[in-house]
Amino acid sequence: MFIFSWFGDVAMRKYQQLLLIVVSAVSVVALLFYHHEYHRLRYVLEVLNFFGKPAENLQCPTINETSLSNRVNGFSSPLPVWVPVGDNHYIYSAFWERNNVIVVGTGPANGGFSGRNSYQCEVWLEGKDEPIPGRIHASIIEGQKKKKVGFLGYTLSCEIEKLISVVPEEVTMWRTQDKVPAKVSLPVHYMNLKRLEDDDPALSLTVCVLPDDSQRISSYALISFVSYYSILGVSDFILYGGSRYHHVAIELQKHGASVSVIPWNFPVSGDGRAELERDCRSRGWPATGNIVVLSLNEYIVPVIHNDLLRMLDDLDAGRKTTSRFQFSTQLFCTNIPDDPGAEPSWPMFMHKTYYDPAAKTGAVNIYRPGALTTNKPIELSTYTLSPSIAAVHKLSSCDIPPGASTDSFQYKPNIRRFVSELMKSGLLNVQVEPRK
Fold first, then answer.
1. Residue 266 and residue 275: Cα distance in Å, rounded?
2. Residue 272: which pLDDT band, with cuts at 50, 70 and 90?
3. pLDDT of residue 95
4. pLDDT in tens, 110-143
5. Do 246 and 107 lie in a common domain?
6. Which domain holds residue 244?
7. Where do the TM regions start and end (predicted)?
8. CA-wise closest residue to 191 among 263, 254, 276, 97
9. Could you give the residue ranges of the DSSP H alpha helices within 197-263?
């Protein structure tokens, strides 16, 4: 009996040892598998960290299709156009601002829309058979150089005889002294905030783009421009006279960018920047709280901040005291060798980091239309930014005499801070088919 018990214990111990060996083997195999997977995952994470996450290559503005359509149509509809309203007097667009009809016009510097060239107006309301009569009060758009010849931009206010609380449909103008007046009507533009869902105007920034008839900038340059400003927090773009870029705008809209195109058949000599800037300020209000007019070769570059709106809020936290932020412009030379660290895949404006400190350039303004008032000069509420905070990089050919040294040009690579995020932008990868 004892012998059988002893043999049973021996067999049991062998089975236990065999089980321990099997468990140990499985544990070793599992440990080796875990070790392999750990290093594999670590390698993948290192690759992602180096090249960027794949999802980030598809970054596009996040806005639903209905809201995007409302914003694009809200800025561009009804389409404006320059029309003659008298001898050398032209009007472009009309807006409903603070219970008043405002018209953007251009006319002779001497005489304008007053004196012998005074105008009358009338306002039409929906469903009404008779208009409300009024009279035009003209004021020169601020920021223009005074001159006795040529043309100036004007803000025309149709002062009507009674107060109305609804948005008019049309405004009609004619010259007072004409025996048979040639009446000209414009539709009144007004952005309906109810159609923009929960968008906060104070948190939006609109860029109005000047026509580039002389530069003929490529479609990719426009895409790069929109991509750059999108990563800086710009919500909307309005292209004036950009009909040849209409197909580009459509492709950008497909990727979530709010890009509107409106005509700009400016009827007289000059660039009409004052008139365009005045139209831009009214066209965006009250849907956007911040507005700036730029050429396609002008880039606002913050030195410290990564977002333009946050920068403005830091400068004027209450959004009440400042109606205009003024940026100095620095001329970055396109005919000087590229930045030594620039890569071929970067957009061209990222290559240009040398500027001419002696070049005389103007200023660029970001307006807050909601803070503008008719009884307070805009200069009193202007915040002038130091180039150490931000400046406008304007790309253009510099005047370099033959044989002159380029040592006088200064190196300023601030814009390269944004190259990594820009290259990940989904908008930058938008492909546009050539027009057939």
1. 9
2. very high
3. 95
4. 878 887 778 999 999 998 999 999 999 999 998 8
5. no
6. 196-429
7. 15-34
8. 97
9. 219-231, 246-254
